[in-house]
Design goal:
With 589 residues, the protein is an alpha+beta fold. 36% of the residues lie in helices and 18% in strands. Among the domains are: 16-135 and 190-212, no CATH class; 225-356 and 428-489, Rossmann fold, CATH 3.40.50. The protein has 20 helices and 23 strands. Helix 5 (227-239) crosses helix 6, helix 8 (310-320) packs across helix 9 and helix 17 packs parallel to helix 19.
Length: 589
């Protein structure tokens, strides 16, 4: 199936890094000068602000005497009529000068933005609601350091390298750090769906991006539009400027199937190349993807993985990832996207659908809870779900993550929508990590279902449009009823994961035994004893929770070894600290 694919030249991965000091310590370099020893090839310095970047990467950069602006990822400005117009850095500056901070409330797309205003010495960081593009910020006594990679910030030698122990503990239990945290105490991700503003004379303040669209007229347009038209609009916006084959990460589930089917409908003349990973010819993911590929006429490649393939892939993935997570997910994605490398430049994904259209198990719990309350107020109602607690909000009960306060106001009038809104309020970095991994292999990962208009449509939709007794994601299924047959439309999704069999247990035990003898500092709060204890539990009772816990313990330990061990991709360790700053920035005291 893959023999007909012709390899392409891959694009340069995005990479940028910079700093903003509290005092006037930057000396502007001569016009056109470049920092010859810098690991990145282009740089700009303006007042207290410094930025370096790879000019070969698809970043939008604008610099003048008052502003520096960087946009990473496809970004669109929403007009008062609700139309989306592609946005570059120079246009963002014009809108910002006219509208101020409210300019960020009119943006859509998959973006991270850095905007420095030298007139008032202020830095702005902004990201889309799903945080699809990485942007990390580190704080030191001298100021801020930022970039799309944590390791570049760490390698500067200015930040405390202490781990965030509460985040580590949460990761070991849940497979992801808490939203708004990394596993490093001194570095945090810029908040998705927000603008972080840093000024010299006052502490950091946070201005949330407006949740509603620009005007009531635009709101009505989105609410009254059907989901299919909004997905089509999102795909056209993301793909109109691309050329060549379109890649799709295809699992056979309804999310990626919908993206693939609508893409085929919109671009019948473009070549679609689909990629799937699975664990044997009888894997439901492999079978489902083959069926979808055959129906849509895509050029299909698949990768069959065994536990024996994991060791090299696990180390490769963790040497690339800025944050580990998802137990066995990322080794599989690393192998899949390495397979896609050179066969396409853009890769579509169905990410976001589980959150927006009630695909996660917690939504079924909330749905049943509402049904039970309607049937009888005398039944004992459930009060908790792993990772959530229920609190009273006016006349409704809504789930929020532990440790977070509810919003004073909500745009989501329905129970499932309110759960979605709160999930987005505390969103973690799983999608930005996927983008970073894909970029390592020259792929631009595009997620059309993460469009802000689709988010707003999902939040404004009734629970009954998303879930019924027998079906979830009803809206998404109904959007493609004319594009795929019923056997594909109603197919049940099998969770894509490795088989938890004897081979898997042996692999995990071997990894745990190696780690129990490592010389690296131990990340796990219980120390080396945790590895031997997990190995014993796996041999006695290899249930799913124990296997997930073992995966998490292995992943976080190997990730820490790569982050702190000078792995490939660090800023040159011989050029760091004050010497590095003086060399590349012309710093003066």
């Amino acid at each position: 199936m893959g023999d007909t694919m012709q390899p392409l030249q891959t694009i340069a991965p995005v990479r940028f890094f910079g700093g903003w000091l509290k005092d006037d310590r930057w000396q502007r370099p001569p016009p056109g000068s470049r920092c010859t020893r810098s690991p990145l090839k282009a740089s700009v310095a303006l007042r207290n602000f410094y930025l370096e970047y790879d000019p070969a990467s698809p970043l939008s950069i604008f610099v003048d005497q008052n502003f520096v602006s960087l946009i990473d990822g496809p970004t669109f400005y929403m007009t008062r009529e609700g139309a989306s117009i592609p946005l570059k850095s120079v246009e963002l500056i014009e809108i910002f000068q006219r509208d101020g901070l409210s300019a960020f409330g009119d943006l859509d797309g998959q973006f991270s933005i850095i905007l420095y205003d030298a007139r008032i010495d202020t830095v702005h960081f902004a990201r889309d609601h799903f945080g699809t593009r990485p942007l990390f910020v580190g704080k030191s006594e001298e100021g801020l350091w930022f970039g799309d990679r944590q390791r570049d910030i760490l390698a500067l030698g200015k930040l405390d390298r202490a781990l965030d122990q509460p985040a580590i503990s949460h990761f070991l239990r849940r497979s992801w750090p808490l939203g708004g945290t990394t596993l490093l105490a001194a570095i945090h991700p810029s908040k998705p769906g927000a603008v972080e503003v840093y000024r010299q004379q006052e502490p950091c303040c946070l201005h949330l991006i407006a949740r509603s669209l620009t005007t009531e007229r635009a709101n009505a347009r989105v609410i009254n539009s059907n989901l299919r038209s909004l997905i089509e609009e999102s795909l056209r916006s993301l793909l109109v400027s691309t050329a060549g084959p379109i890649g799709i990460s295809l699992s056979g589930g309804i999310d990626s199937t919908a993206v693939a089917a609508i893409t085929r409908y919109l671009f019948p003349q473009r070549e679609l190349r689909t990629f799937t990973v699975g664990f044997g010819d009888d894997d439901p993911e492999i079978l489902g993807a083959r069926t979808v590929s055959k129906h849509l006429g895509t050029i299909h490649r698949e990768l069959l993985v065994t536990a024996a393939d994991l060791e090299r892939s696990l180390d490769r993935a963790l040497s690339i990832l800025e944050i580990p997570g998802g137990h066995d997910e990322f080794p599989c994605l690393e192998m899949l996207w390495r397979l896609a490398q050179g066969h396409c430049e853009v890769l579509l994904s169905g990410n976001g659908a589980d959150t927006l259209f009630a695909g996660m198990s917690v939504y079924r719990f909330i749905w049943w809870r509402a049904r039970i309350r309607q049937m009888s107020r005398y039944l004992v109602r459930p009060t908790s779900y792993p990772g959530f607690e229920f609190i009273e909000c006016g006349s409704r009960t809504s789930p929020v993550h532990h440790g977070e306060r509810p919003l004073a106001q909500s745009v989501a009038p329905y129970r499932l929508s309110r759960a979605t809104e709160r999930t987005l309020d505390h969103w973690d970095e799983r999608l930005s990590v996927q983008s970073g991994l894909a970029r390592h292999y020259g792929l631009e990962l595009l997620m059309p279902l993460c469009s802000r208009k689709i988010i707003y449509k999902a939040l404004a939709s009734r629970d009954s449009l998303k879930m019924s007794l027998r079906q979830n994601k009803r809206m998404l299924r109904q959007a493609i009823t004319d594009l795929v047959p019923e056997r594909i439309l109603l197919r049940k999704k099998g969770v894509q994961q490795l088989r938890y069999d004897g081979e898997m247990v042996r692999f995990l035990c071997n990894q745990l035994n190696v780690l129990s003898e490592t010389d690296h500092p131990i990340v796990h709060p219980r120390g080396k004893i945790a590895f031997s204890d997990l190995a014993d539990r796996l041999l006695r009772s290899p249930d799913r929770p124990t296997i997930h816990e073992a995966w998490n313990a292995i992943s976080v330990q190997k990730w820490a070894a790569h982050i702190f061990g000078g792995s490939e991709g660090f800023v040159d360790p011989s050029i760091r600290g004050d010497a590095y700053l003086a060399d590349v920035c012309g710093r003066v005291r």
